[in-house]
């Protein structure tokens, strides 16, 4: 849950130069056995002083058992799986599943993945995997039957969602690269970027997303459920935020502290910026959160973060196994602790409401001088909005865009404005509202009264849907 972060050991590098450092012990060590190599590494680099009886343990796993929970000894295969997870890579067929009465339903398919190439589509229901029935089974059971090693295959029997016919297809399992950065323009021209992992190319992907979305009235950067990644990715990501010049402080064995600067990026967020966090934002996510909060580079929305304030480094042993070792603890640039404390948001929200509230606040911040009307709660999905004024209006001066219905966390919903009489208009959404959705209805003051006087204030109100 806590994720991990790694960086070059300070003894060899004075700045963060790489994403992680492999110490190739086979080329530099006089020891023949990995256990002796590991013992010396733990003794020299582990962040805490250890009693001799720990270092005297006869195996690496026994020594590691007495270290912190983030220090781990991995085989070469386990390490490959570990780094694939950081880089958002997995072996599979590329489907997202949910339980169904008849089997396991495909909710969505990763574009250009094996399932898509085999002709599977969202809505298809998987009923067998290699001859084993999936009827009544959990998604977890289905995943265990469908997943497997790279370059093997699984034969799936499924109900075609279009024809209702029973079909069979054999699908290869391949390495699938999940998108690490998701980006879209929300209603009101608010740029939204989600980072799933502090992976090797995170800063390049974020830069591309900012440039693709173009100028925005505000930005929302989402690192909820982001368990961390590389220290250097955190250092680079801090450089996207306005006014943020320092990334974090590291303290090594002996409490020696060193502050690292944020790395300025070719494209950056322009104010206002919101940063979304939650209890599963950990490690490198907390590095960025602590730095941005302290330097007021963004307003933090969500819940207190996980509280993993330690850094791990990677050491490759002579047999190609890997020792992941906690070598430092990190703090905010000014020294505020993170470990077992986390980072508190500026504005606390209920879990799952981070984006809705952030988007709402971004929109309302651009409506200075507008009058807030009471919230409409639990309206039907077919709701038509009626606006009635006290005096006669020249509604014909209303133009497209003067009336906006924006789904919070989503895009603008097209509406038709119908004039009932000189005091009344009806606002008709052009598609049903989303059930349980939240919206902001805005009427900009771009029309005039019968006396040719321009309106001096707009209006807005919040809407929740049944």
UniProtKB/TrEMBL annotation:
One of its GO terms (molecular function) is peptidase activity. InterPro entries: ClpP/crotonase-like_dom_sf, PDZ, PDZ_6, PDZ_sf, Peptidase_S41A, Tail-specific_protease. The keyword Transmembrane helix does not apply. Residues 1-32 form the signal peptide. GO terms for biological process: proteolysis. It comes from the Bacteria. The keyword Electron transport does not apply. Residues 83-146 form the PDZ domain. Keywords: Hydrolase, Protease, Serine protease, Signal. CDD domains: cpPDZ_CPP-like, Peptidase_S41_CPP. NCBIfam families: prc. Belongs to the peptidase S41A family. This is Carboxyl-terminal protease. It comes from Cytobacillus oceanisediminis.
